[in-house]
Design a protein that fits this description.
The structure is a homotetramer.
Chain A: H1 3-6, H2 15-21, H3 24-27, H4 31-47, H5 53-68, H6 79-91, H7 93-96, H8 105-141, E1 146-151, E2 154-160, H9 161-186, E3 188-189, H10 205-211, E4 216-217, H11 221-226, H12 229-255, E5 263-264, H13 283-306, H14 320-341, E6 346-347, H15 362-373, H16 377-393, H17 403-410, H18 416-426, H19 428-434, H20 443-486
Parallel strand pairs in A: 3-4
Antiparallel strand pairs in A: 1-2, 5-6
Helix pairs in contact in A: 4-5, 4-8, 4-10, 5-6, 8-9, 8-14, 8-20, 9-12, 9-20, 12-13, 12-14, 13-14, 15-16, 15-18, 16-17
C-alpha cells in the first residue's frame, strides 16, 4: 500500500501482503488506458471548473510524459497509485493531490479494464472475420469436392468440402455477432461513479465517456463499479468462440489421421515425434482444442468468483482482470493459427472414388425408391438397410451389387431405368447435385451460402470499422481538448 | 430401438441398452412441439407434391389426434419414433411410412428443442421484466431512503435504497437484452437439413419455418443439425442472469442478518429453525443463491460436453436437452420467488440515524475540504482519514467531534461556516442530495434512473410481445394450412 | 413449513414458497436412512436416560412402522418434518414431541446424506471392480492381439489390444482407490452435533455412529453440520472416474468408426440411423462420453455453490444433495453399460497385416540401427525418418523397401543379417515381443500386468466386502438394541 | 521444432507455429527435474550396457553442467529438445545422439511434471500443516472466548472462538490427508514407458524410479504416458483446499465487517480506500476467496481438456502443466497469507455481553424446560419460540423478561429454581459449559479436540518428513551412481 493512502487510517505495511494483493503484473496491460482515463478526467475537471487551468495543465503535462515512459510499478500496489505518485512527483503535492478528486480506484480500474477489453475484442473480431474469409475462399475452391458428411463419427452422406467449410464459417459468424453485441455492452463508461456513489464534484460524465471512445454510460453508480457481468459475458462469448475453433481443429485432427486421410496438414503446421519418425502430428490443432477447454474453465472461474458476493466493489474483482487478457489472447492466437493453416490444407481429390463411401448414398437410394417405386419411405429405408447389411456381410460395397441383389430385396425385377438411376445415385459427385433443399451441400446451394456468408462478413467488418473509427476520433478529441489546456497560458 | 429402425441393418435389442440411451423422459417436454414439426413438415411435403393430399390428410388427422393424447413413450427410444409409430398404427404402413420422407431425427429433434427453448425463454423473459418492474416500483418508494452503500462488505458511502434497487434493476435489464439477442439466434429453423445434407425431396424450408414461428433458417444443413452453440449461448445467458439474481439474494441475506438489520424479510419467505426458535432464516434466498451455482455448472457441463466432438450430429447432444429445461426452470422459479418477495421487504426507516454510519460521510467531508479550503484532494483525504482514526480510537463517531478536533487536523481554527457545512455533510439525508454526477444516488438522479429503466422495460416488453404474436400467428397459419388439407376431399 | 415449526416464531405460510424450498423430491432417497437415524437416536436417548423407556418404545414402534410405509411427503417441507409428524400422529404430542430432543435437522440431514452416499458409492465401487474384471478377462484373450498404439490420433507403435485394456484397467483401479479413500472420509457420523453446537442432552455419539455403521465421528460439531467437503470430494472422484470411462468410450467410438475399423461393436449396443441404414452408431458410448461432461459440470456446480458461504449450516447445501444422487447414478449406469458391452467387442484379428501400420515399427527400426550398427539414436531416428518420408512420397510402405533403399540412407550396403532383423522388426507380431521394459506391451509383460491388476482388484473387493459387513453388522446391532427396548415391558 | 527432429520426416518450419506450440515458458519449472531425469536415464542405460561408460561419462558431465546453467530455451520448442541440443553441442553428435535412446518426450515430460508437482505438493503440505498449527495455537487461547455460532448467517447458538478455529482446522486436516493420498499416486515413475510402448532397449525402470525418488512405477506403458488423472486429482484436491481456505476468509470478512465486529484484522493485512478513509478493507482475504474460485475453474478447464481425447499421448496435455503450477502457487500463497494473518487477529472479548445474542440461548432454554419441566421438546421449542417472538416485538432481549413473562407461556408460575437456571442459561459463558456431547464447543471438549488435532498434525508432518527424506536419499543415490561413472577412467 502506497504512502499516498497509508497516511491516514492505517499505518503499518508488510512486503508480503503488499505483494500478495498487488495487481501490478496484470495492470501492465491497463497502464496506458489508465493514463488516458486520468487525462480525460482532468479535462472534465477543468471544464467544470472543479480544478483550475494551471493545475490541469501541469497534471496533463505529467500524464503526457507517463504515456511515453511507463510509470514504475515495482513494489507499488497498483497502476492507479503508481500514476498518481508519478504525477505528484512531477507536479508537487499541491497540484498532484487534485488528480484523484471526484474519482476512485473503483471507477477508474473498471473503466481501464473496459477500454482494454474493448480494444482486445475489436482486434479479435477483425481476426475472426479474417478466418471466416479464409474459410470462404477455401470453400469456393471446394464447392464440388466430394467429402463425407459424418454423424456419430461415421460417414453418413456425401457433402462437399466446401459445404463443410461454409457450415463452420456460419458458426463463426454467429460468434462474431455475439462479440459485436458484447462489445456494445462493454463499451459503456463507468467514470464518474467514483467509489460507488458518484460525487459532489461537478463532472460531466458524458464528456469523459466521449473522450474515451465509449458509446454511452453505465448510468447507476453502484452498477457502474459493482457490476462485472460485462466481463462474464465477454468470457462466455470467448468460450463459445473457442468451442467452435476447437470443433474445426478436432475435425481436422480426425480428417488428417492416417486411417481417415481426407486432408493433409501443411508440414510446417505439423511436427514429428522425437522417437517415431513416421508420425505427422497436428500439434497446433491439438493445442487449439486444449486451449478451448482452458478458456471455458476461465469462464467457470469467473462466474464462480462472483458467486456469493454482495453488491458494491469487492477486491475479488481484481482476479477477473487477468482472466480476461488470458482468454482474449488465447482465442486470438488460436484464430491466427487456424487462419494461417486452413489455406494450406490439401484435400484428397479422389474421395468420391473410395469404395466404402458407397454406403453414404443409402439415404438417397431410399429416397429414389420412394420417388420412383412409390414405396413408403420407411419401407424403402428398411429395404436399403437390408441390402447394406447383406453387402457388408459379403464384404461388398453397394456398387458391387447386381440387379439380382436388388430384385431380392424389392421382391420384383427392377427396371433398367431404375438400375441406371441407382448407379447415378451411387456416383457421389452426381449425388450431391441431387440435393434440392435450401442450404444443402449441392454445389449450387454451396455457392449461394458462400455469397451469403461473404455478405455477412462484410457487414460485420463495417461494424468493426465504425467502432474503430469512433475510438480513434475520441482519441483525437481527447488530444485536442487536452492540447488546448496544455497550450493555454 | 424401435422395430421401425431395427428392421434393416441391425437386429437384436437389449432392454438395458434401450433404457440407457432412451431420452423419453426428457422428451416429454418436446412432445407437442415435435408433433407440430411433423404437421408443418407434412403440409410442406404436400405443397411440393412430394406426397399426395390423401396421404397428407390421413397423417395430419393422426397427428391432430396425437396433439390431444400424448403418444405412449414407455419403452420407446424417443419421441420421434413414438410419433411415427403412433401415426403408422392409425394410418397403416403405406401412409405412415411417408411421414419421415425428407427429414431425419437429427433435424427434427433440434427443431423441437429450439421451439421449446424459444417458448421457455420468452416466458422467462416476461417474468424477468416483471421482476424489473417490481424493483422499479419499490425504488420509487425508496428514492429518499438512506441506505449504506457497501464496498468490501463495509459501509462506504450513503446511497438510497432506491438507488440500490435501480442499480440492480439495470443489471437485470442487461440480462433481458442478452435473452432477447439469444432468442433471435435460437429462433431459426433447422428443418429440411435432414440428417446433415438436406435432401433430394422437394421441400420448402422457408414455409416450414414460417409455420413453426421461426424468424429464419439455420441455412447450411451441416450447421443446422451439428451446431449446438444456440444451446450453449442460452445456458450462458441463463448463468449470467442467475448470477445477478444470486447477488440480489446474497445482498438481502446480508442486509437481513441480525447484526446488519437493514431490511426485514416477510415472514412467509423466511423459516425458523427446528431447534432455534429465534431464528428467521432466509431460506428461499439461500436457495436462489445455490441454484445460481447449479445453473453455472450446467453451462460448464454443456460446453465440456461439446469439447472434442467433430462436426455433424453426435448423440452426445441428447444430454444437453434436459440441461436446457433444468436451467430455464430453475431461473424462472428464482425470478418468480424474488418478484413475490421484494415488494414485501421492510426497510429500516431510521438507517440515517445509525451512528456508525457517520463514517460513510468521510469522502464528502474530504470533498468539502477541497471545495471550501482549497486543499488538494489527497491532503484532504489524509486529514479526514486521520480524524476518523482518532475518532475510532476514542470510541467516537464523527458527529461527536468538536471544532477543536477539526482544528487539530487542519492546523487552524475552522470557520463557523465550515463547521456548519461539516455538520450538514454528516447528515446522511442531506448528504445524498449533494451528489451531482449523472447516475448518482441523489434522489433527483434516482428518479431519472427509474424513468429510464421503466422505458427500457417497456421496450423489452414490446419486443417480447412482438415475438409472441409471431409465434401465435404462425400457429394459426399452420392450423389454416393443415385445416385446408384436412377438409379437402 | 410444517405447523411443528411454525407455532413459535413465525406465523404465515405460502404454498409457492413452501414448494420452492421443499426438498421432498430429493429427500425420497434419504427417507429410509433418516428413519434409521431417528431409531439410533432414540436408542441412544433411552440409553442415556434422556428419555424414558416407555416413550422410547412408543417412538420406536412408530418408526418401525414408517420403515415399511414411507411417510407422506406431499406438501411437507422435508423428510425430517414428515417423520416427526408421522411419529407424533401415532404416539401423541407428549411422546412424539421428544423425538427431536438433542438433535436438529442440520445434523440429521447430513447424517442421512452420508449414509445414502456411502451406500451408493459402495455399490458403485463393486460395479467398477466388476468392469475392471471384465477388462482383465478380455485382456487375457488379447495378450497377443496386435493393435496400434496411438499418439496424437496417429498409429505410433504396435501394442497389443490386451495391453490397451490392461492400461485402461489400471486407470480405473486408481479410481477405485480414490473411491475407497473418499468412502472412509464420508463414512463418519455427524449425529450429536445438533444444530451446530452439540447439546446439553446426554447422548453417546459413538453409540449412534456404531448403530448406523459409521467408522467414526466428524468430531467438532460446527464442522459436522457445516462441512460439505465430503460431498465435493465424492463429486470430484466421480468426475475423475467418469473421465476415465469417457476415454474408453471415445477410444471405442474411434476404433469402431468405419475408416479405422479395429473393433466392431455388438449390434445390440449400436443403433442405426433413422434415415441412413448403413450406419452403426455407437449410441451408448456417445452417451457415456456426454455423461462424463455432465458429471464434471456437477462438481463445478457444487464447488461454486460452496463459494462465498460462511461456516455453519446454510440452506444452500440442500441443492448439493440431488447432485450427489445424479452423479452416482450416472456413473453407475455408465459402468454397467461398459461392463455389458466390452465382453462382446469383436477385434479385427488381422490388424498386424495392415500395410499402413508398417510405419509403427519405425521406432524399433531406429533402435535396431543403434543396437546393430552402433549408430547414435538421434542419427538412426533421422535415417529412418528420411526413409519413411521417401516411402510415403512413393506411396510405399516399409515392407516394400529394398536393400538398395536402406543402402541409400545408411550410406553403405546393409548386411544380410541386418536385412533379416529389419524384416523381423517389420513383422508387428514379433515386434511386440521385442519390448523389454517392465510394463511394456510385450505378451510376457502383459501377462504380468494382468496378474497384478487381478491382485489389486481382489484387494479392492476385500475392502468393499469388509465395509459392507460393517454396515450390515451395525444394522443388526440397531435391530437388536431397539428390539430390546421394544420388547421391554 | 528443433533441427534435431526436423531432419527426418518434415522439413519446413514457421516461427509463428513454433511459438504457438512452444511450451518453453511453462517448461522453466521442469527444467531441473528434466535434467535429473536425463541423468537417471543415462545411469540406467550405462548399468544395462545399452551405452558404454565413456559415452555415459561425457553425457553426464554435460548434464551436470546444465544443472548449474539453465539450457537456453529461447526459440526452442521445449525443454527436452533444449537439453538434448545442449548436450550434443558439448559432446558431439556421436555421443549426444545416444541420450534419447530408450526414452521419448512422452515419458520424459510426464516424469518431470510428476517430480515437480510432487515437490510442490510436499511444500504446500508443509505450509498447510503450518496453518493448521496456527489455528490450533490460536484455539488454545480462545477455548473460553464466547462467540456466536452462525447458521443461515444468523447467530444460532453460543460456541467459543476456539471451537470455530478447531472445527475449521479439522477441515484443513482432511485436505492434508487428501494431499498425502494424491501425493502417493503422483509419486510413481513413468520413465521407461518411452513413447507409449516401452522399448527394446534394456532399461531398469525400477532403478530409474529409485534414483528419482519415486515410490513405484506407473506400470503399463500406455497408462504411464497417456494418463493425466494424477494431474486432475491434484487439481481437485487443490480446489477443495482452496474452498476451505476461502470459507475461513469469507468468515473473517464477515466477522470483521463493521456491523458484526467480532474480530479485527491486523492493520497490515487490511487496506483503506483511496477515497473513503474510514474503511478497513480485508483485501488479502477477498483475494483468497477469489483465488479459490480461480483454482476451482482450473480443475474445470483440465477435466474438460481431457474430455473427448483418446488413449495415448496428445499434445493437449501440454496445456495442463501450467495449470498445475498456477494452482499450486495460488493455494500456497493463500495458505501463507492466512498463516501470517490469523495469529494477529483480535477478538472482541466482550461478545458474551452483547444483548442481541441472548436469543442464541433459546435452544438450551428449550432443553432446560424438557429437563426440568418434563415438557416434550417440541412443546418447549414452541413455548420458547413464542417468548422470543413477543420479546422481539417489544424490543426486548431474553434477559429483560420477567417471571410473569415466563408464566404467560408456561401457563403456571415458574419456580425460583427454574428462574435461576434460566438466568444461568442466558449467561452465554456458562451456557457453553453446559454442552455435554463429544466434540461440542464446551471448553472441555474444545481442549480435547485441540489435542486430537495436534496429534493428527504431528502424524501428517511425520509422513511429510518421511516423503522428503526419501526424495533426498534418492538424490544422493543419483549423485553417487552418476559420480561413480564420472570418476571412472
Amino acid at each position: 500500500m502506497s504512502s499516498l493512502l497509508r497516511g491516514g487510517r492505517l499505518t503499518r505495511r508488510r512486503a508480503d501482503v503488499v505483494n500478495f494483493i498487488s495487481s501490478s503484473e496484470a495492470d501492465r496491460r491497463i497502464t496506458r488506458p489508465t493514463v488516458l482515463v486520468n487525462e480525460a478526467h482532468v479535462v472534465a475537471l477543468q471544464k467544470s471548473r472543479a480544478i483550475q487551468s494551471v493545475a490541469a495543465k501541469k497534471i496533463l503535462r505529467a500524464l503526457r510524459h507517463l504515456e511515453q515512459s511507463e510509470p514504475p510499478t515495482r513494489g507499488v500496489e497498483d497502476v492507479h497509485v503508481a500514476i498518481e505518485e508519478a504525477v505528484t512527483r512531477r507536479t508537487g503535492t499541491e497540484v498532484g493531490g487534485l488528480l484523484h478528486l471526484g474519482k476512485s480506484r473503483n471507477d477508474q480500474v473498471v473503466t481501464a479494464v473496459r477500454i482494454t477489453l474493448r480494444d482486445g475484442l475489436l482486434d479479435l473480431s477483425d481476426l475472426l472475420i479474417g478466418l471466416e474469409l479464409c474459410l470462404i475462399r477455401l470453400a469456393k475452391r471446394h464447392q464440388n469436392t466430394v467429402f463425407p458428411g459424418y454423424t456419430h463419427l461415421q460417414p453418413a452422406q456425401p457433402i462437399s468440402f466446401g459445404h463443410y467449410l461454409i457450415a463452420n464459417c456460419f458458426s463463426l459468424i454467429r460468434d462474431s455477432e455475439r462479440l459485436t453485441e458484447a462489445y456494445s455492452r462493454i463499451n459503456q463508461s463507468p467514470m464518474g461513479a467514483a467509489a460507488i456513489a458518484g460525487t459532489s464534484v461537478p463532472l460531466d460524465r458524458h464528456l469523459v465517456a466521449k473522450l474515451l471512445g465509449f458509446e454511452g454510460l453505465v448510468e447507476a453508480s453502484l452498477d457502474a463499479v459493482g457490476g462485472r457481468d460485462f466481463a462474464l459475458e465477454a468470457l462466455a462469448v470467448l468460450a463459445l468462440t473457442a468451442n467452435d475453433l476447437s470443433r474445426i481443429s478436432t475435425d481436422l485432427i480426425f480428417y488428417s489421421s492416417s486411417e481417415v486421410g481426407l486432408v493433409e496438414l501443411p508440414d510446417e503446421f505439423a511436427s514429428t515425434s522425437s522417437i517415431m519418425p513416421q508420425k505427422k502430428n497436428a500439434d497446433p490443432l491439438e493445442l487449439i482444442r486444449a486451449k478451448a477447454a482452458k478458456v471455458a474453465g476461465i469462464f467457470s472461474s469467473a462466474v464462480s468468483l462472483m458467486h456469493g458476493l454482495t453488491s458494491g466493489y469487492n477486491l475479488d474483482y481484481q482476479e477477473i482482470t487477468p482472466m480476461l487478457w488470458e482468454s482474449v489472447d488465447e482465442v486470438a492466437a488460436c484464430v491466427r493459427v487456424l487462419a494461417a493453416l486452413t489455406p494450406r490444407l490439401r484435400i484428397d481429390a479422389l474421395v468420391a472414388s473410395r469404395a466404402y463411401l458407397d454406403f453414404t448414398a443409402a439415404t438417397e437410394l431410399a429416397n429414389l425408391l420412394v420417388r420412383m417405386e412409390h414405396m413408403p419411405f420407411r419401407t424403402a429405408h428398411q429395404r436399403v438397410g437390408a441390402l447394406v447389411r447383406s453387402a457388408v456381410k459379403d464384404g461388398k460395397t453397394l456398387r458391387d451389387l447386381q440387379r439380382t441383389d436388388w430384385q431380392a430385396v424389392l421382391g420384383y425385377r427392377p427396371s433398367g431405368r431404375l438400375m441406371k438411376l441407382i448407379s447415378q445415385t451411387l456416383d457421389l459427385t452426381s449425388n450431391i447435385h441431387s440435393y434440392r433443399t435450401y442450404g444443402s451441400p449441392s454445389p449450387r446451394e454451396t455457392k449461394r451460402l458462400i455469397s451469403h456468408a461473404s455478405a455477412r462478413c462484410r457487414d460485420l467488418q463495417r461494424t468493426n470499422d465504425r467502432a474503430r473509427r469512433r475510438v480513434e476520433e475520441s482519441m483525437r478529441m481527447l488530444r485536442r481538448m487536452s492540447g488546448t489546456i496544455l497550450s493555454s497560458s
